[in-house]
């Protein structure tokens, strides 16, 4: 019995030792797989920098929609202020990209800075700018598996932090995840720098998806952060940005007024000369309103605004620009003053709401339009 117990204990010790040895070897193998030689790391960095350059060039051929919301949260998580801007980044008839604002109500948070706007289009979705790769220190952290992706991880920081008093150049500081097969950034977490005591930025996490089967496009950015300023002010900020409707290429369409074709069908009808069709750039999608710049001359009814007495007494003069959305029937369904003396804006908006237009159509279908009405108060 004792011999059997001794023999059994010996076997258990032997198996335990073997198991521990296998575990240690597995951990060592895992650690080895996460380590890489400096020469290999440099090759990885150069490879994904080159891929990022190719991706930026490819992105220039795509129109897309961006929905950006920045919220300030108060006690209990209630929204105390908001900046919300929805835009379509599309092309003009010459192939130049421009931003078409689709929705931009008056912000209830006034703390959005030019750097914040720049980061929405640069640092937040793209992290690294390939042309600046030599200005960064990239530290290899290891590898991580997320879903079915095997990813290289790098910590990133500018080699020299720029002086915000001398330059407006922006850099990324944080962490990036690079797919080990496609050698493209698929995730990033960090912020735009430099910061100052009066201008702080949240840490933003951005995810990319493979849209065209070749490149990874940013599709979602998120931040929920607390910022402490030099004055001692502390704010809780939340940011959500989505990037959707990626469409390659652009198209030029012609807007003609409804009724023009009907008049042409009857050669005996005496009519005034038809207005010259207006050609405007739009993306290849047609579910958004078409934009036509300044559209005063296309209005069939355009009442003049009532000059406010208070503005008259103060001798306030100027030009007010009002962005309008026109429905399929030619009626103004939205009007928002974007420029001009504040004392005159309300009067201009009220006048713009009463304007009427001939409906527009695209490929035979009635469509919405957007444009700008200009009112002069003299």
Helices and strands, with pairings:
Layout lengths: L1 H33 L3 H22 L2 E12 L5 E13 L5 E7 L10 H8 L1 H4 L9 E11 L2 E10 L12 E9 L5 E9 L10 E7 L5 E13 L5 E15 L2 E7 L2 H6 L12 E5 L7 E5 L4 E3 L7 H5 L4 E9 L5 E8 L2 H12 L2 E2 L2 E3 L2 E3 L1 E9 L1
Parallel strand pairs: 13-20
Antiparallel strand pairs: 1-2, 1-10, 2-3, 4-5, 5-6, 6-7, 7-8, 8-9, 9-10, 11-12, 11-18, 14-17, 15-16, 15-20, 18-19
Structure description:
It is a single chain. With 378 residues, the chain is an alpha+beta fold. 24% of the residues lie in helices and 42% in strands. It is built from 7 helices and 20 strands. It has helices spanning 2-34, 38-59, 114-121, 123-126, 260-265, 309-313, 342-353; strands at 62-73, 79-91, 97-103, 136-146, 149-158, 171-179, 185-193, 204-210, 216-228, 234-248, 251-257, 278-282, 290-294, 299-301, 318-326, 332-339, 356-357, 360-362, 365-367, 369-377. Strand 2 and strand 3 (97-103) form a beta hairpin. The longest helix has 33 residues, at 2-34. It is globular.
């Amino acid at each position: 019995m004792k011999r059997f117990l001794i023999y059994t204990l010996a076997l258990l010790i032997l198996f335990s030792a073997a198991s521990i040895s296998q575990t240690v070897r597995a951990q060592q193998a895992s650690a080895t797989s996460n380590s890489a030689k400096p020469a290999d790391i440099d090759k990885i960095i150069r490879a994904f920098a080159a891929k990022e350059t190719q991706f930026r060039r490819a992105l220039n051929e795509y129109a897309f929609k961006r929905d950006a919301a920045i919220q300030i949260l108060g006690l209990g998580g209630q929204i105390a202020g908001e900046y919300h801007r929805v835009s379509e980044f599309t092309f003009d008839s010459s192939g130049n990209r421009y931003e078409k604002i689709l929705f931009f109500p008056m912000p209830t948070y006034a703390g959005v800075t030019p750097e914040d706007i720049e980061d929405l289009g640069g640092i937040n979705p793209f992290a690294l700018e390939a042309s600046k790769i030599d200005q960064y220190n990239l530290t290899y952290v290891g590898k991580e598996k997320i879903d079915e992706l095997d990813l290289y991880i790098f910590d990133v920081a500018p080699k020299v932090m720029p002086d915000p008093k001398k330059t407006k150049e922006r850099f990324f500081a944080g962490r990036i995840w690079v797919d080990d097969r496609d050698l493209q950034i698929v995730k990033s977490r960090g912020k735009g720098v430099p910061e100052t005591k009066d201008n702080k930025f949240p840490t933003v996490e951005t995810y990319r998806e493979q849209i065209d089967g070749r490149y990874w496009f940013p599709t979602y950015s998120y931040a929920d952060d607390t910022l402490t300023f030099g004055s001692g002010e502390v704010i809780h900020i939340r940011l959500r940005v989505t990037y959707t409707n990626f469409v390659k290429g652009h198209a030029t369409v012609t807007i003609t007024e409804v009724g023009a074709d009907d008049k042409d069908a009857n050669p005996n009808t005496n009519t005034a000369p038809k207005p010259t069709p207006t050609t405007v750039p739009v993306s290849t999608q047609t579910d958004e309103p078409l934009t036509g710049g300044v559209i005063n001359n296309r209005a069939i009814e355009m009442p003049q605004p009532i000059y406010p007495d208070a503005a008259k007494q103060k001798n306030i003069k100027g030009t007010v620009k009002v962005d309008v959305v026109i429905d399929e029937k030619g009626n103004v369904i939205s009007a928002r003053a974007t420029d001009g003396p504040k004392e005159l804006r309300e009067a201009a908006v009220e006048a713009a709401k009463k304007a009427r237009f001939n409906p527009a159509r695209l490929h035979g279908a009635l469509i919405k339009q957007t444009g700008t009405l200009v009112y002069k108060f003299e």
